[in-house]
Amino acid sequence: MLMQNKSGSQGRNQLVDLQKAGIQRNGRWLVRGVDLSINRGEILTLIGPNGAGKSTTAKLVTGVLRPSEGTVARAGDLRIGYVPQKLSIDWTMPLSVRRLMRLTNSLTDADLLAALSATGISHLINAEVRHLSGGEFQRALLARAIARKPDLLVLDEPVQGVDFAGETALYDLIRQIRDTTGCGILLISHDLHMVMAATDTVICLNGHVCCRGTPDSVSRSEDYQRLFAANARGLALYSHQHDHTHLPDGRVLHGDGSITDNCHPEDGYHHHHDHDGHDRHGHGHHGHGTRDGEATRHA
Amino acid sequence: MLDDFFVRALIAGIGVAVTTGPLGCFVVWRRMAYFGDTMAHSALLGAALSLLFSLNLMVSVFGVAVVVSLILLVLQRRQALSADALLGILSHSTLAIGLVLVAFMSWVRIDLMAFLFGDILAVTRQDIALIWGGGLVVLAAVVWLWRPLVASTISEDVAEAEGLKPERARLLFMLMMALVIAIAMKIVGILLITSLLIIPAATARRFSASPERMAVFASMIGALAVAGGLFGSLNYDTPSGPSIVVAALLLFIVSLLPFGRAGADATTGGIGP
């Protein structure tokens, strides 16, 4: 029913659609119950703490990983441009920026140069990739992905190692690419300030979808206030709404001490805004639980 | 001086070197030296089985190498032991089983040294046909799969996301390795095949500005090493396989010397002075 509605209303514009997608490795759920879809001309941003499943979700979208449950539907002949979070090139491989640009497809010199100019590194066209700085390397990877003229750009932390001024420029560029080519963009970032202006939808992940919405609607929500208030204080960004812990065996320990197989909202255990109730029982998100006190006070 | 057997050996050896060059580049880039060794060592088991069941030598060596690499894939998925340890187990146990089988077959007299270190005298016209035929098949496949192979060497994820089917490329690469081992065995021998994959590729690195050039240079350097090694083998009556490897090593050492373009590229290679 839901599927029909979606495909009916959005039709050809939908590039990729995840329904209750989850992926399990060695008995542990890396991410679960993810519903998301990306349309042409839309920028979707994923945020979340380390290990929240952001990159895993990106790999579900690109088809690098197959879901253990749920479905992932991609438009036929979907052309993807992918900037992975990590990429290491062995020094034994001689590789210039020019050659890197043609890694997965052939390219005219004009297109190649245009992409390098757009990311501001056309002067490095003949440089050895392993001699690039971190920021230059990210620009080269982004240039490579956009030169493909993809339908869907998947950018996993595309501005890591880029200085502040460059970051602004690259996010402007990403928005500009969306505006001019009309491609869909999946953006992973932990710097919400920078991406907010261009983003249509934000999804906060923490092993599952914690919260979502347009920046406008989210910005009025309590979650968003916490996100931004917390962001200003640095590491406390993700202290909101952790009312449960993911156990090593994949089950979920909730704030009230109960254990269930997953943390889907329909469990009835997953309440985002009842920290004051649960915190007293000592909930166990050790990794990022330092601001529990704050969260309680806010709530 | 150029007796008939020597010309045959030269033609066969160059055919092998031309084939191992591009494959060797991938072995170096992907850090698969030990994997190549393991597949090569399993060739003795293949040779023993071919004697036992009167099969064609190359076919059974190829078959065993393929089976060993598939076993490795399955064991790696179960993640009980590290890839390193699994390779060690498979590498030496297949070699040992091969040696034991050969020892049991008292009714056949075989020259074990020829299997282990290669024998130029053993190269026949049929071998030349198989080496060049198989080599051309491998080279054609490398050209066909070049983009997916290079792309997935740099990033499996990017190759997969952008539709290059890296898994298929990897599987075919393993088949190519098995085929190369089967055809190279007579020239350099089971124990030294990996060196013919790695040393010319490593030598070519210094002179190459792109993956494509490195593959071509590796073939040329390999052919040079084969020629040099075979001449040395003839002159000094040394075993052919080890002589070729020594010649390849000499070329590698020469490539390390700080001559020619001593500019930025050579000195930042990581192994330069």
UniProtKB/TrEMBL annotation, chain A:
Residues 13-231 form the ABC transporter domain. Residues 263-279, 289-299 have a biased composition (Basic and acidic residues). It is an enzyme of class 3 (hydrolase). Keywords: ATP-binding, Cell membrane, Hydrolase, Ion transport, Membrane, Nucleotide-binding, Translocase, Transport, Zinc, Zinc transport. Residues 263-299 are annotated as: Disordered. It comes from the Bacteria. PANTHER family: METAL TRANSPORT SYSTEM ATP-BINDING PROTEIN TM_0124-RELATED, ZINC IMPORT ATP-BINDING PROTEIN ZNUC. Belongs to the ABC transporter superfamily. This is Zinc transport system ATP-binding protein. The lineage of its organism: Bacteria, Pseudomonadati, Pseudomonadota, Alphaproteobacteria, Hyphomicrobiales.
